[in-house]
Design goal:
binds magnesium ion, 8-stranded mixed β-sheet, globular, single chain, binds aspartic acid, 413 residues, 26% strand, binds adenosine-5'-diphosphate
Length: 413
């Protein structure tokens, strides 16, 4: 008997008919003798709908109250799925994040999981019940409802799998695995049977929404066996999807580039004509960090005549806030000629562990983009990634061109 955590995303629980399908799959696993913990998202579109209601009332809604609202989406689906299971004769019990006691910090709308109490879930599992847990949510030390950031149900599932020492964590979604890039943008994208943890982490951090980045981080930390598969195939004949692997297997076919990720959620801020002196990066980014704004790419040019330009990217939701922080700090922590921003940018990244042993990939990437007349505004690299910021309007073209340039539609030889 093994313990399996199964997570179903919004589309997979988008209607009561689909919830019945989920219940059938859970029942199937249970009949095979497994213990099952199910994590569900809100029905598709529901979280957006809830957040839009708050935006109707305020341009800048209080984050604590946003979490109170957003968490209700998942509360509906745990109840519905439990009812569907019970109706099928499968004992089931629903839990909100607070009822499990998924303890998080108090960073509303992007809280981090600190601890999970597994006692109640264990007791239910041992008594033969399916445990149905609301994804995306937790509770802080003071009992406030928190949420884990968009796409956070993936993280709930992996964190529960780690806490319960589950044999496998299965992420069921509307595609049958992790592809070389988003198949909605490139229909020729190819499903990967396996992907290394490092590559998955990089793809997720660069914007591949198939797994939330924190879920991949958790999986790596606790070596959770993690698989992405389709919720739309029959339970008896679901294909194996994509397995996240932790060891590089020499016998494995290994492409140089595994995938392309992209992200439309960023904005670029350029602080022009700042003093080229020690401490300037801190003077600009210190207040940004204090305002709890995450910074992604950072570029500082070599200064000429004592001045330099400094640019960085932030999440688009935090763009206005970041500009406000800089406007406040300007003339206090630092002087500059001008602060300009652009929230119509996109980031495209190619990822592959083969980059470690191959040269010339950046040149190949830049050549492909140049061939389409796409201007590169910023570049950043890591050992296994090259990312560029471009004008948002060229995003889809860039992804398609790069997918082709690196032959990703073909299996590695
Ligand atoms: P869920 O609601 O199940 O969590 P998401 O919409 O969050 O589903 O994630 C699944 C979607 O991720 C797919 O429909 C696909 O459009 C998108 N996606 C982005 N990049 C990839 C990729 N590399 N492989 C597979 N899907 C991807
Ligand atoms: N319902 C949440 C969202 O839409 C969490 C999730 O689906 O993973 O972001
Ligand atoms: Mg998701």
């Amino acid at each position: 008997m093994s313990l399996i955590v199964q997570k179903f995303g919004g589309t997979s629980v988008g209607t009561t008919e689909r919830i019945k399908n989920v219940a059938r799959r859970v029942a199937h696993y249970r009949r095979q003798g497994h213990q099952v913990v199910v994590v569900v998202s809100a029905m598709s579109g529901e979280t957006n709908r809830l957040l839009a209601l708050a935006k109707d009332l305020s341009a800048n809604p209080d984050p604590r109250e946003l979490d109170v609202i957003a968490a209700t989406g998942e509360q509906v689906t745990i109840g519905l799925l439990s009812i569907a299971l019970i109706e099928m004769g499968v004992p089931a019990r629903s839990y909100t994040g607070g009822q499990v006691r998924v303890l998080t910090d108090s960073a509303h709308t992007k809280a981090r999981i600190l601890d999970i109490d597994q006692a109640a879930m264990r007791a239910d599992l041992d008594a033969g019940s399916v445990v149905v847990v609301a994804g995306f949510q937790g509770v802080d030390q003071d009992g406030n409802i928190t949420t884990l950031g968009r796409g956070g149900s993936d993280t709930s599932a992996v964190a529960l799998a780690a806490a319960l020492d589950a044999d496998e964590c299965q992420i069921y979604t509307d595609v049958d695995g992790v592809y070389t890039t988003d198949p909605r943008i490139v229909p020729e994208a190819r499903r990967l049977d396996r992907i290394t943890f490092e590559e998955m982490l990089e793809l997720a951090s660069q914007g591949s929404k198939v797994l939330q980045i924190r879920s991949v981080e958790f999986a790596g930390k606790y070596k959770v066996k993690l698989r992405v598969l389709s919720s739309f195939e029959e339970p008896e004949s679901t294909s194996a999807g994509t397995l996240i692997t932790y060891e590089e297997d020499d016998s494995m076919e290994q492409a140089i580039i595994s995938g392309i990720a992209f992200n439309r959620d960023e904005a670029r801020i350029l602080v022009m004509g700042v003093d080229d002196r020690p401490g300037i990066a801190y003077a600009i980014l210190g207040p940004i960090a204090e305002a709890n704004i995450d910074v992604d790419m950072i570029v500082q040019n070599i200064g000429a005549s004592g001045h330099t330009d400094f640019s960085f990217t932030v999440h688009r939701n935090e763009y206005r806030k970041a500009l406000d922080v800089l406007a406040r700090e300007r003339g206090r922590g630092f002087q500059c000629r001008e602060i300009v921003g652009d929230d119509r940018i996109a980031k495209v990244s190619v990822v592959g562990i083969g980059m470690r042993s191959h040269v010339g990939l950046a040149a190949q990437m830049f050549k492909a983009l140049a061939g389409e007349g796409i201007n590169i505004q910023m570049i950043s690299t890591s050992e296994i990634k090259i990312a560029v910021v471009i004008d948002e309007k060229y995003l889809e073209l860039a992804v398609r061109v790069l997918h082709q340039a690196f032959d990703l539609e073909k299996s590695p030889a």
